[in-house]
Structures are given as C-alpha cells and as structure tokens.
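Quick illustration, no need to memorize.
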Amino acid sequence: MDPVRNPFAPGAGQRPPELAGRDKELDAFEIVLERVARGRPERSLVLTGLRGVGKTVLLGELRSMAQHAGWGAGKVEARPDADLRRPLSAALHRAIRDLAVRHPHADRVDEVLGVLKAFALRSAPSDAKLRDRWQPGIDVPVRNGRADSGDIEIDLVELFTEVAALAADVETGVAVLIDEMQDLRPGDVSALCAACHELSQSRAPLVVVGAGLPHLPAVLSASKSYSERLFKYVRIGQLDRADADFALLAPAEREDATFSPEALDALFEASSGYPYFVQAYGKAAWDAAPRNPIDALDVKVAAPEAETELAVGFFGSRYERATPAEREYLRAMAELADGRDEPVATADIADHLARRASSLSPARDSLLKKGLVFSAQRGQIAFTVPHFGRYLLNQA
C-alpha cells in the first residue's frame, strides 16, 4: 500500500484510533457543557487509565468540544518538578482570550487578566531578583488584592471565581484540562480540590477535566476526603473487538482499502485493543501490504517492524529512565506476572529477589514518581504501561 497515504501515521487520520469507542465519554461531556452553562450543578471530570489508551487525545478532543460550544478552554500538562501556577496561568490566559472574543466589555476582560497576572507573578518568591522573575506575557496592569496572597489554595479559589464570573457574563463556561494530573504536587492537588468544591457550591460555570494514571483517584482522595464527591471518575481502557476493528477499518476505507477478517483477528491479538498499539500495528501492516485488502500474512510480516518501533519509542524510552536497581525491580515484576498485565504483591517481589522489602522501597518509590508503576491496591504494584512485562522478558 502507498506509505504516503498511510492513514495510521500519527496525525493522518480524521479520527485517530484513540477516539474509537469513546462516544460515551464524548456524549457525557457534551451534557456537562450544557448543564454547567445553564447553571445546573455538575461534577468535574477525571479520566484514568494506563499509558497508551488515548487519554491525552481524548482530553484534546474534549477541549475542542468546549471551544466549539463557545467556552473558554485551556490545557495544562502537570510535571512532578514544577508547581501549578505557571502552566495554569498560561492555560487560563488562553481561556480568557477565548471568552474575550464574545465579551462586550474589554475593560472587564482586562480586569480579570490583571487578577490572573497577579496570580502568575506569585510563582516567584517575593525577594527574587527582577531577572529571576517570570513574566507571564499578559499585557495589562496587575490588579493586586485578589489571587495573590501566596497561598495557592486561597489564590486558586479566588482566581477560578473571577474567571468563572467572566464566563457567566456571556452565558458560557470555562474548562481547565489537566493532563498527567497525578504528577501535581500535594499542595496543588489540595488547592485544586478546594477550588472545585467552592465552585460546585456556587454553581460557577467552570469545570476541571483531569487525566492520569489509574491511581489518580487515590491521590485526590488522600488530599481531600471529600474529593470523591467533586469528580466523576471515568476509566479509559482497551477497545473491545468491535471498536478496535472500527479503528482500523474506518481510516482504511477513507483510502479505498480494507482489512480481511483474518487480518483483523491477527491485529486484535497483537494489540490487545490498546489504541496506541492498534495504530502502531495498523501503520506497519499498511506499509507492508503490497495490495488491497490487507491480509493476515501482511500483518505477520509487519509485526516485527511494529514491535521494533514500540520497543524503541514506547517501551525503551521509559526503560532508559530507570536506574539499575529500578530495572531489577521491574524485571522481577515481569517474571512474577509471567509478562501479563497483572499486579503483583510487593512481598512476592522481595521474596523473588531474596531481599528485605524495606531495602526495595527506594526503587519502588522512585518508579512510582517516574510513572512507570502504580499501586493497584495496598501491597500490590503494577505497570502503568501495557505489555511492559512482556517487553522486559523479551529483552532478558
């Protein structure tokens, strides 16, 4: 098949595989937009799942939906080594600019931008030298007295209230989308929960949409006991067989091509329905196929190419971040689970390595912070990356 027309190349498809089977989530968010804009109570949304299930792509689609509905929308990617003020300021700046197009009073918009600027400037210590102060690029005077106390919990409540009020002026709302939400610092998580709680009490038209690893609900619950009432949790998992087939057939048919039933069988077995893998194997099969339809032999020929690409870009890039001690821990996990995507007991890992559990705690904690594993439940640990155990066994 023509590699130039490959509909599975990143960015080539009109609707990427990550969005196949996500109609339920998209429809639910459309209802959220409508209810919030009308002043009805609605919880913020949290998407959770393993790597490679399409959370980031889905988050981007939800942002587009909000903007198409006339909302202000801004997206943040949380990082464990950075606080929330700077990226959130940039995201809300974008959201306010979306609202400014519809707002009839420019001075009112500038007033809220001034509050946002005051919030952003608190990202640097008060005694920091001028050259060390971050300039947020907001070209209005600072409005002191709101969202600039230096206490992130107080400031975030006040800032969200100001931005939500601006949206209410034009009968719309604001969506703040946060990717890798589990990487937020504890103080920022607490502040975010407090702000969402305040907004839900006042029915202000601002919602937070977070995406993160499966243990994100536990992170939120540990921060604020009432967090389970603030968020609607949606688990994003593998595609079922029908949706995985659709993710392959729909892009191919737009290029006047198709897959044989046997090819679809082979691709589902190889990908296990994980959207990232569906796209990787679909792309390789398209490039390997000499003619239409793509058949099972084409999939078999293409599989090593797809696996090599995954080994380098998806698995290898993460494995390289691990220290020797952490790699030993990861391999023990893979061996105990026999390469399956299943949690294992931390006590069993200690026994397997003939080590005391306490001596393995630093490696485990570091892997948790790096996002390579997560605590499935108390005393158990699992990979955040599907098929990672199988990759490690093949490497060994």
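DSSP finds 16 helices and eight strands in the chain.
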